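Changelog note: in this version the structure field was regenerated for every chain. One regenerated record is shown below for reference.
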Amino acid sequence: MILVTYGPHGWFEKINKLLYRTEWCSKQLDKLGVEYYLYPKMNIITIRAKYVPHNIAAKHGLVPDTHDDNPGWYKIVVMDHVEVEHLQAFLDELSKG
């Protein structure tokens, strides 16, 4: 269905756009000194919870590794609707603490 909908080149472009956004965000996290994990060629960034206040994680829709009051990690899942502007807003708030 994906190939029928997008065609091989359209799907390639879509995936590369997501990977570009993911890589861009990871470089910004590096600049902030935030510890994270990013598996190569994936669109998921996993950030240690100690770097992300709970209210910022909730506001920006980060996914915790557990839904109790003490997550160890939060995930940013870069999908088509996650624009660079959304990532930048998150990073701006994160840098302010």
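Spot check on this record: Strands lie at 36-37, 44-48, 63-64, 73-77. The mean pLDDT is 93.
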